Each structure stands twice: as structure tokens, then as C-alpha cells.
Amino acid sequence: MEEKEEKKELLHCDCCGCDIDTENDEYYTTADNETICEDCYYNEYFTCEYCGAIEHIDYSYTAQDTGTMYCENCKDEFYYCVECGEYYEKSENVHQLENGDYICEHCFENGDYYYCENCGELYHCDEMHEQNGYMYCDNCYEEGIIQDYHEHKGCFDFYKTQKDFSKIPLYFGFELEVENNEQSIDNNDMAEIIDGIMQGSVVFEHDGSLNSGFEIISNPMTFNYIMENKAKIKKMLQELIDNGYTSHDARTCGLHIHLSKNYFTENQVDKLQFLIEKFKKELIVFSRRTSEQIQQWAKFITDYTETGNEAINMDFIKKYKNTSERYQALNLCNSDTIEFRLIRGTLKETTFFASIELMNNMARIVKRKSLKELEKITFADLIEYGKNNKELKKYCRDKKLIAENTSEENTANNIEVAEVMALCV
Q1: What's the pLDDT tens digit per position in 397-416?
Q2: Are 412 and 401 in contact, with CB atoms under 8 Å apart?
Q3: 20 to 30 Å CA-CA from 235: which of 43, 96, 117, 293?
Q4: What domains appear along the chain, each with residue ranges and CATH number?
């Protein structure tokens, strides 16, 4: 008689339910003591490379830097990025925050996290402050006289003299940007010195367009007040020079001049815009701005392609003026002021006061002259207008924008805009 065939030992796969021949088939035992066949292991399970346990793939974690797979129990041995939600194996690819959390190298390089310059701890940018080009955490930041950008908006005093009798006087405001490239003095210390000189009539703000400097912002002042306090402003400019600050040479700085909007009617604002476009070539030379700077920070209406070669008249101004674009030679976006943005930053007193006198002349002439009269005036007429133009005339003669005497011809009248740009040095 034939012997009965020996009965084989069979197991059942706890995943798919198939029979497993324990002698001939590969099978595995999971961390939960379940038996799985070879197919299910390769399709549904993995072996944790940290502890060796076999787990279902739904409970796996993968280190993004190495591709290593590990189980739930071992995930604390790896680094979890709170920004992107991924795990990492190697410590050099992660950064630890002050609160003990981690972020990966990729998220760190996105620029939202910084190490505090003082304590060395890592923080999100929302918990930090920029000061003199460095980042400080809330605990280490020493809040100085220089405030955050636009923090002073609307919080100003108005300065005028006994000579200012008008019911609605014309107020000026200047924003002078300066760079502290030499770093021989702390910006807040410099601001404290200026504050003492100007006796509280200016405020200070950080500005993201600057590399290592700050912005000096005047309170609203009448022209008479500025002229009566020229000595203070001259001393302020000289202190900045003596302490290694730059403005014109920094190439990042501007001198923006604000005029109180309620001083003008809408038609007078249009006439002001007309003068700026009419004397574009001369004003470019006056501004010392490069073509690139003008296109970035202070465009003329005629710099926009849609204006074509249309004649510059009041219809042109009304058609193309833009009250929603900030970075124009004449910014009309502000609720209370008109901002002339064209002028490059300066620490030279003649240039500074010439810029104020120019805007004073332009403001006064659009109030008193008709459009027909403005269409006929020359740039020299504009510069010569009124009595308060000493620095303005000197500056324009030095730039050859007006002649030394009336029998000579003005330089800018006979050159093209491209040639004008070469003079902006």
C-alpha cells in the first residue's frame, strides 16, 4: 500500500486571506504579530529601518533627505518640520527653533526664519525686528527712536510762523532717505542726534528699500518755517556727513517732498502735473536720478507706452493721470498730500533747499497763473518766479539748466531725453 502523503502545514495571510505553505512560501510576522504573505509584504507593508519592525505602509513615515522609511514608534527619532510637515533624518538638514520645534533647510532658505543676532536663537520673522540690517527677537530687540515703516502715519504736528496768515497755508513735508554704509555709529544713536538738532520736528522710520539706513520724515512745515530753521537743517545734514552717512552716492535713496493737498483745487493739481511733463528734460537733470531709478520709483506720465506721442496739454493730463499708482514723479495716491518723488537723495544743503524752493515755486505759480500763461513760460521763468529762490537759481546755474544771464541759452532746451540722462551724476 502506498503511504499516505504527509499533510503540509498551512497558514493564512491576515492581510489577503491566502494560504501560505510554511515550507515553500516566504511569509512575515508584523509588529502586531500578524502573518502576511510575500505579496502583501511588498505591496502593503514595510520594515522600519530604525527598529526593524514590520508595519502597514499606511503608518509609515519617510525622511525627505534620505528616503528612509520608519514606523510610528520611531518617528520621534527623526526631525519634523513644522513649516512643511515633512520628516528629516540628518540633523544638518534641519534648524531648531527657540521653542524646540524644527524647520528643514528648504523652509529656512525661504526667508521666513532668522537667527537672532544677539541670542543666536531661531525665530519666525513675525517674532523679529530688523535693526541696522540685522534681525533681533522680541526679547533682544531694543526699540529705539527709529520706528517701523509708516508707524507715524497721521501722527504729526504742524509747524508755521507768524508770517503765515493764510487760512489754508501750504505745508511742506520732506522724506530724506540715508544709508549708514560705514556703520561707524548706530542708526538709533544717529537719529537721537538729529532729533536733538531738529527739536522734535522730524520722526524716523525703517524703510525696506534701504540696505542699512533709515528715513528722516519731517512734520508738516510752511515754507517760512523751513527758511527760518535753515540752520537746523544744515546742521542735521552736516552731522550725517560727519558720521559717514550717504544719500546721493548710495543710489538707493530719494528726497520726497510732500505738499498739502487741500491747498490746491483739482484743476491746480492738473496744472502742476502739466508743468512736470512740460519740463521733463530739465527736471530729470535737476533730479540727478538715473533712468533706471526713474522707471522704478518716479515715472513720468509720458514714460507709459499707452500715451504714445500725443501732445502734452490739459486734455492729455486729464486722460492719462493716474491716482492709483504710487511710483510716479507726482504721486497722487495719498489722501492728504501730493508727493513729488523725482529727486534723488542728497546731503548737500544747496541741493536740499533748491528742491524745496522748486516745489514752492511750482505750487505758487499754478495757483496764480492760467493754463495759457503756463503753456508759454520757460523753465527759467519757473526758476525765477517769486523771491524765495536763491539756492534754486544757484543750483540750476551749476547744472546749466538756466543761463548765467538772459542773453544765453538754457542747456536742457536743446538736448534729447537720452542725453539728459547722461547728465544725471
Answers
A1: 999 999 876 444 455 555 45
A2: yes
A3: 293
A4: 10-72 (no CATH), 78-142 (no CATH), 171-422 (3.30.590)
